[in-house]
Amino acid sequence: MGQRRRDLTPDASPLAHWGSELRAWRDRRGMSLTKLGELVRYNASYLAKVERAERKPSAAMARACDDALGANEALWRLWEKIERAEAGGDGRGHVASSSGHVASSVATLDVVGFDPGPSDEEVTLPCRTADGRIVYVSLPRRAFIGMGMGLGAAAAAAPAAFGAPQVSPAPAVVHRAANANPVQHLNQLRMVLIDSDNMMGPRPVIPTVEAQLNVIYQLRQEHTGADGRALAKVHAEYAEFAGWLYQDAGELRTAQYWTDRALELSHTAGDHELAAYVMARKSQLAGDARDPLMALDMAQAASGLVRPRSRLEAVCATYAAHGFALRGDTNGCLRSLDEARTLLTRLDDDPSSPWGVWLDAPYIEVQRARCLADLGQHAKAAEAFRAEIDRLPAGFHRDRGVYLAREAAALAGCGEPEQAAAIGMQALAVAADTQSARIVRELVTLDTSLAAWSGVPAVGEFRESFDASIVHQA
């Protein structure tokens, strides 16, 4: 006998109304939660919680459900109405921050307010379905972080995670001393966190960065004038860094939120160079999301703001090249990459500018390799990746993993399965170390490409190891 489904109370809240409308559209289409979940690539148990107003649907989920159910934007418009109503309130959300860390030295202050952030985002994970396909599923981000789930632990821990309670973050606490310079301290801490991210990946760093964002938000309530603008600049820098961390963690909606926030704050601080850099980063983020129009728009808009013959101008040209590649424009792509290389030889740079200092000829060439792969020139891409990986400094552990995974995918694309599998195993080890979703997404592509050669021992070993590292359909 089937279990009687729970009655809904649409008048209880706007979210309850949305959930009841979702169920009504499912009933109208004769679609189960399981079937809807397959279409929108969200776990059915999570969709059930959205129907019962126990979880708030994200924008992506609302749009996907509307499309899958043929609701003619009825669900989408209702979701937008809820968002507008919530924005009319005090606008404060909360972020998943760690209560135990605020790096500073002296006595405590009272509870602080929070820098508004996404309140109910989800972690997207690759999941092996019963028929062997890999799809992406979502679970609450706080449950994921609270469980300490890494790549290797995902398969064992994920079934419990879908029903795990959310961990409520405690508010950050500000520590300060008389005559202390918080801007200098926060800048020094950010550099330490950047080094930590390079070696260990984003997950260990995210709680600390979000704690500092909360601290900065409260400090800005107390300072105006030059001090206030200096804190706004630091706020923008931390928001941009948070956007990068979430981008590498594969949570692109949250990455977009923090990158947008960084752009707003850079204008608040009156720092036009920082604003241009953040716009270039928005181009990079759009490239990772495989959105060629946004990648090109943001790179070209940023290019119009930067100082001619600056390193940032070369950054913009590099990210524009990826936009052209995603659009299939080989000439535009190669022209932009060559422009970036030429700009590097003619720099009239301000040595005090911190933005884009990592851009050098090897970085442009590894982006060339990525573009060649997107353009289908796999053999050239694999050769270019190998040359640049060999030149990569030892400290860039996570980036090495990303490039190894892309090299492996390129090798698979040009019919070299054994070599692709061997390099894929190296990338998988880095992914386990750093929990970088950018590496995992490249390995999903590699795993799919290698399926035709499953009988090759090296390929079988890689696919078995990768399969053990991802969640499986219950």
TrEMBL record:
Matching SUPFAM superfamilies: lambda repressor-like DNA-binding domains, TPR-like
Stretches assigned to the HTH cro/C1-type domain: 22-76
Gene3D superfamilies: lambda repressor-like DNA-binding domains, Tetratricopeptide repeat domain
Stored InterPro entries: Cro/C1-type_HTH, Lambda_DNA-bd_dom_sf, TPR-like_helical_dom_sf
Bilayer-crossing regions: none
Pfam families, A to Z: HTH_31
Record's protein name: HTH cro/C1-type domain-containing protein
Source organism of this protein record: Yinghuangia aomiensis
